[in-house]
Amino acid sequence: MRYIDLFAGAGGLSEGFIREGFIPIAHVEMNNEACFTIKTRLAYYFLKENHQLDIYKNYLLGKITREDLYSYLPKYILNSVINTEISDQTIDGIFEQIDTLNQNQAVDLIIGGPPCQAYSVIGRARDKNKMVGDKRNHLFLQYANFLEKYQPKMFVFENVTGLISAGNGNYLKEMAEKFTSLGYHVNIHLDKSKNNEKVDIFNTANYGVLQNRQRVIIVGHKEQLSLQFHLPTFEMPTTKYNIKEDLLSDLPILQQNEVKKIVAYTQKATDYQMATCLRDINFDFTTQHIARPHNNRDLEIYKIAIELWLNERKRLNYANLREDLKTHKNQDVFQNRFQVVNPFGVCHTVVAHISCDGHYYIYPDLAQIRSISVREAARIQSFPDNFFFEGSRTSVFKQIGNAVPPMFAQQIAKAIKKALKPELLDNEKSRIGTIQEFTFA
C-alpha cells in the first residue's frame, strides 16, 4: 500500500504508516531542516533492512557526516523528499517529481495536514487579524488538488480542533463540500441541532501517547468502495502509566543549558517503553538530551511553580507572582503561561511554541530546574529514541511540537490497513511493504 505525505513536517504521521508496512512514494514539505529529518529517518529504515544499522549508529555517534550517511541511500529515496512549498506556482512541478518517482503505479493513500496556525484558537487569539486573509486557511484546496490528480482509495487529513470553529465553521463546511465533489465519502456530517458541520475529535491519550492532545482526523474513501473505518482504543490504557516513572525515568539528570548529545540509559527499559517501542534493543544510548538556557528570574519562577505543583497539586497563576518577577503588563491573559509537566499522569499538549521558550513545559523536579529537553519532548510526542531530528535546537523543538505523535499515527495506519485490505485483495496479492520495496527500477 503506497502513499504520499503532504505538509509532512518531521514525518511523525508518516512514521506510523511506515511501521504498518505502507510504502512512501513521496514526502512534500517546505521546511528545509524538517526535510533533512525525514531523509535521516528513511536512512534508518533502509540501513536497518539491509543489515547495516551500524552505519546509522555511527552517524548518531558523530563518527560520520550526514553526507556520508546519505551516500548509502539510493537516489530515489533522497529524491522522494520534496523540499517545496505547495502553491499554485509549484504544484505542477511537484506533480512532475512525484510522477517520475511513481511511474504510473497506483496511489492507495494520501495523508497529511496543512499548517495548523491558521485554524488554531491560540493562533487566532495572537494574530491581530484573527487569521482572516491568511493564505494557510485555504491550503486544504491544494490538498484536494492531489486527491483529484492521484485518486487515492483513501485519505487522512489531520488538524487541530480549532478547525471546527475557524471561519465560523465555514472552512470545515467547504472541506466537506470539496472532498465530496471529488467523489469521497468523509466523516464530516451535519450537526442538525446547531446547523453546522461536525467531525470526530480524537485524544492521543486514548492511543498509548502520554499526552492529552486532541486532534481532528478527517478520513475519506472513494464512494464506490464499501469501506469501514474505525479507530479502536489502544490496547494499553495510558491511565496505567505516567510521565515520571514510565516515560522519563531512564534519562540522566540534566541542568539548564546543558547539552548531552549522546546519553547512556541510567536504568533498564520500563514496560511502557518496551511495549511502545520507544526504546530499541539495538541501541544502548539515545541522543539530543539538550536543555535550553534560562535566566535567573525564570529559574526562580520555575522553582515556585514546581514546588506548588509537587506539594499542593496546584498550577501557578501568573498574577500571583511577586511583582519583581513579572515582566508582562497584561496579567489577565495567559495566566497559566508557566506550567509544570505532570509527573504523575499524562502531559498537557505539546505545541510548536515550545521552540520559543520552555515556560509551558517545566520539568517536574527541584533537582533539575529547567524546561524539558529535546529528547523528553520527543518522548512525550511518542517519537522513539532512535529517531534523530536535524537542525538547530529551536528548529527541532518546532518540528516536535508540530508533529503528529507516531504512536497515534500507527493506530490510524492500522485502521486504514484494515479498511483497505479487502479492496487491495481484489487487485493484487496482499503484502506488507517495507522501505526496501520502495523501488521503481
Topology of this structure?
Layout: E1 2-6, H1 12-19, E2 23-29, H2 32-49, H3 53-60, H4 66-70, H5 75-79, E3 81-83, H6 91-102, E4 109-112, H7 121-126, H8 139-150, E5 154-160, H9 170-181, E6 184-186, E7 188-191, E8 196-199, E9 201-203, E10 214-222, H10 243-247, E11 259-264, H11 271-275, E12 285-290, H12 296-312, H13 374-380, H14 393-402, H15 406-427
Quick overview:
This protein is of the alpha/beta class.
Give the total of beta strands: 12
Detail the poorly predicted runs.
Answer: 129-134, 424-441
User: End-to-end distance, in Å?
Assistant: 18 Å
- The CATH architecture category of the largest domain equals 3-Layer(aba) Sandwich
Q: Into which percentage range does the β-strand content fall?
A: 5-15%
Number of H/I helices: 15
Account of the protein in words:
With 441 residues, this protein is an alpha/beta fold. It folds into two domains: 2-233 and 405-437, 3-Layer(aba) Sandwich (Rossmann fold), CATH 3.40.50.150; 238-401, DNA Methylase, Chain A, domain 2. The protein is built from 15 helices and twelve strands. The strands form three sheets. Strands 1, 2, 3, 4, 5, 6, 9 and 10 form an eight-stranded mixed β-sheet that branches. It has a two-stranded antiparallel sheet with strand order 7-8. It has a two-stranded antiparallel ribbon with strand order 11-12. Helix 2 (32-49) packs antiparallel against helix 3. The protein is globular, with a radius of gyration of 22 Å.
Task: Output the keywords.
globular, alpha/beta, eight-stranded mixed beta sheet, about 35% helix, 2 domains, DNA Methylase, Chain A, domain 2, two-stranded antiparallel ribbon, single chain
